[in-house]
Amino acid sequence: MSTISINGKILQTTHQTVQMVVNEMGLSTGRYAVEVNGELIPKSELDKVGIVEGMTIEVVQAVGGG
Questions:
Q1: Could you tell me which residues are beta bridge partners of residue 6?
Q2: Mean per-residue pLDDT for 51-61?
Q3: Most CB atoms closer than 10 Å: which of 22, 25, 30, 37?
Q4: How much is the pLDDT for 66?
Q5: How far apart (Å, rounded) are the C-alpha atoms in residues 12 and 47?
Q6: Residue 22 in contact with residue 50, Cβ under 8 Å?
Q7: Band of the pLDDT at 64, cuts 50, 70, 90?
Q8: pTM to 2 decimals?
Q9: Which of 36-65 are b and which e, b meaning 16 or more Cβ less than 10 Å from the residue's Cβ?
Q10: How far apart are CA 32 and CA 63, in angstroms?
Q11: Domain boundaries of the chain, sorted by first residue
């Protein structure tokens, strides 16, 4: 089990990839961007980025409007 931070919340997870965590948190709907430890990660790569103890994940949802 790894302890990570996602959008400022501390979370313990047994998931192996960032994509799995983002999906579980319900953050993978619509248009979104993911940053891991300050680095923007393409969505196509999220299932290849492994969870590491202490990592920081930020997920930003795009919101339309004018």
A1: 9, 57
A2: 96
A3: 22
A4: 64
A5: 18
A6: no
A7: confident
A8: 0.88
A9: beeeebeeeebeebebeeebebebeeeeee
A10: 9
A11: 2-61
Amino acid present at 66? G
- pLDDT tens figures, 2-53: 999 999 999 999 999 999 999 999 988 889 999 999 999 999 999 999 999 9
Assigned CATH for 2-61: 3.10.20.30
Phi then psi for residue 24, to 5 deg, are -60, -35
DSSP class of residue 13 equals: E
- Rounded Cα distance between 59 and 6, Å, is 8
Token pair listed for 50 = 């492994």
64's CB contacts (< 8 A; 6+ apart) are none
Is residue 65 helix, strand or coil? coil
pLDDT, residue 63, reads: 80
